[in-house]
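Researcher: Please predict.
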Amino acid sequence: MGKIFTKSMARNIFHGSSAFFILLFLVLTFDTSIALPERDHRENITEQVAKGKTVWEINNCIGCHTLLGEGAYYAPELGNVYKRFGNNKEAIKGFIKSRSKNGMPGRRSMPQFNFTEEELDALAEFLKWTSEINTANWPPNIQG
């Protein structure tokens, strides 16, 4: 048989691995604090983007959709919907307007919210803004 595993050996392994992971945590925290300012685009928030966020929240879009991975997984991811629709806000607005009054028969689908043109513009601008966030290429495919 080999050596006996002693208390001092266990203590040394504990302290060594603890020091390693604390150091690793500090290095990753420092790296993140350097990288985040380069990815920030809060200065691009306009009044219309803020209004679109309000429309998003009031109508509980996140109850069905995900936005940058947060929310419900019932309906498609909308963090990259602007890119999926060919960088076209009019296409997004047209899709939202095209929903039937009661959804599709026989299945649950997105209802018609009867947004005003101003609300549609704001919502499309908000979705465009979210698509411009540097998510480090996540999701890896355009379908979300």
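Model: The longest helix spans residues 7-39.
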